[in-house]
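Tutorial, part two.
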Amino acid sequence: MGVKEPSRRSQRLLAFQALYGQEFLECTSVEQLKAAFLAVPRQDEALEMDGEPSGFAWELVYGVWQHRDELDAVIERFARNWRLDRVGRVELNLLRLGVYEMLYRADVPPKVSMNEALELDKQYGDSRSHTFVNGILDAVSKAVDKGELRIRG
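Running the prediction step on this input gives:
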């Protein structure tokens, strides 16, 4: 019997946890990022092959890490009257994850990206952040639909 592939929801949670950890121990190389990702506690060993990170969670972590400045610029564009340094670290990383999926993951519908980020926000975010996160992700989704933001994935 083969190893069951972890759900995208569980992999998204793992990606969020790894990205949130980057707020405290910023990785400056891919090797550091790999080590930090593999150090995140998880119940699923199907996320690495031969000691190397793999799977959807790793793709999200690496993609957000690689495009962080661009993602932050998009978030800042739609976070009217909010500087990124005022946004909670949980919310910022959920926004980065959601925006990354919308711009770089053609295999994930924008509504799914929004819903998943909002579900994680309910669980880990500030009780008042839901409207903020939803508003920014909705604005990004609409900008993508109108062609104001280009999908790169």
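The chain has a mean pLDDT of 90. In part three we will examine how such features are distributed along the chain.
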